[in-house]
Amino acid sequence: MTNETKRNWKPQTALVHSGTLRSGFGETSEAIYMTQGFVYETAEAAEARFKGDEPGFIYSRYANPTVDMFEKRMCELEGAQDARATASGMAAVSAALLCSVKAGDHVVAARALFGSCRWVVETLMPKYGIETTLVDGTDIEAWQNAVRPNTKLFFLESPTNPTLEVIDIAAVAKIANAIGARLVVDNVFATPLQQKPLELGAHVVVYSATKHIDGQGRCLGGVVLSDKQWIDEHLHDYFRHTGPSLSPFNAWTLLKGLETLPLRVRQQTETAGRVAEHLASRPAVVRVIYPGRKDHPQADIIARQMKGGSTLICLDLKDKRAAFDFQNALEIIRISNNLGDSKSLVTHPATTTHKNLTDEARAELGINPGTVRLSIGLEDADDLIEDIDRALGKAA
Fold it and tell me: What DSSP state is assigned to residue 333?
């Protein structure tokens, strides 16, 4: 089995070729190695493999050739030294956070998080004696003021789910570095094409590969990326013994998704920009938040740290009834809590992804009864605008 020679490829080329392993059959497409374990020529070879004296695979819960190809390709795209692929995005988030801290440590996180991420920080971690503090992620002084002598980890997502708030990653990383803490960034909304957290100073990046990386509604997956030392010293044993591993078939599906990621994200972002501009002109729309617009609250930060806008749009209608009527009247755009798909999707965060938060917590995050999240797909922009206009008319 051979590995493709690594060259100084541009992202589009790397996403097609990097990390490819070929068997003696010389297959064009990456092979799916659907196996639990691997055999050894001798007992001595098995011992050497387990001791780490001989390279090779041991068990698919630890590593697998197909999964390894996906991890290497993601490293190439992200600019990371090493990675571990997981069964879902939340498995990636949980692994990155929990392997980094112990009882008595303190974690500071931005309060604007996906509902399950916030549950891990607010509910799960304190059960194991880990102290946590939530802050306004856009307020850099709040990060500094939250620091304690036992602060070991910072965590944020940017842009945030669902209100597309953007946090100054470099500024937060600077505070983390000053106290010897690690910064974990959930980069799923930006994608690795629009934002590079490691280049901005973050130490660990996590993705739900279910979203744009697959991007076609087929499978679950996640990935954690960082430097090799952190992976070896913190994540490796956690990953090996708790078993959040990605299946080889899903890894193969995600490899196929990576081949078309630049094409899809570029088209979706362009269409999302057009749709956002149109929504801003509609009287039934109370508010539009989109990272590509000049009126975005953090437009200056976006200009510094993002290479493009987003495939997501957040908008407010007057109330919950208007939001529901709008969703129910859409014909092309379908109601779903997923995002980053080739099909345009819509959801009502207050009753789906963020339903477990209190009314006060949702209001604090800018999630109102009339807030709607749009994930723009690959459909024609004019068709989407027509669909949205018809639905807005019925909602009004």
Answer: S
Does residue 93 belong to any structural domain of this protein?
no
Within a domain: residue 123? no
Position of tokens 């407010």? Answer: 316
Give the residue numbers spanning the domain of 272.
261-395
CA 270 to chain centre: 20
85 domain-assigned: no
Within-domain flag for 224: no
Contact 153, 108 (CB under 8 A): yes
pLDDT in tens, the chain (396 residues): 555 555 688 888 998 999 999 988 899 999 999 999 999 999 999 999 999 999 999 999 999 999 999 999 999 999 999 999 999 999 999 999 999 999 999 999 999 999 999 999 999 999 999 999 999 999 999 999 999 999 999 999 999 999 999 999 999 999 999 999 999 999 999 999 999 999 999 999 999 999 999 999 999 999 999 999 999 999 999 999 999 999 999 999 999 999 999 999 999 999 999 999 999 999 999 999 999 899 999 999 999 999 999 999 999 999 999 999 999 999 999 999 999 999 999 999 999 999 999 999 999 999 999 999 999 999 999 999 999 999 999 887
CATH number at residue 322: 3.90.1150.10
- The residue type of 81 is Q
Is residue 96 within 8 A of residue 187, CB to CB? The reply is: no
Verdict on whether the full-model pTM lies above 0.85? yes
